[in-house]
Amino acid sequence: MPLKLEIVTPEAKIYSETVDMVTLPGVEGEMGIFPNHVPLMTQVAAGEVAVRKGSQVQHLAVGDGFVEITGDRVAILTDMAIKSDDIDEVKAEEARKRAESRLQEKLTAEETASVTAALAHSLAQLKVKRRNRS
Fold it and tell me: Are residues 20 and 73 both part of a single domain?
């Protein structure tokens, strides 16, 4: 029984395919999802999603969000999702540096949350992009 994976951001449906397995970054650690997984709804942390389809593995960078898992479906709702091939490493590195330097400034709680999220997004993108290079 295949697994239907959908990854959705506020802007668009980024991914929608039938896959064999999904590995995603949960707040408690990495989770591997196979078909017939026990139903579950939990938080997703910014990081890397690995999608296995046959012998192929595709990597995506995701931001914070939620995942709903039913027996044959995985739906990830996140504030960012980018396929490895679409990541601009130079821009991600610049965003990381900007966020890290902003965190040194005096920021309001709201600004700190926003900058921390931006930093998590850039680190997730860099991790995914650099993994595929090695």
Answer: yes
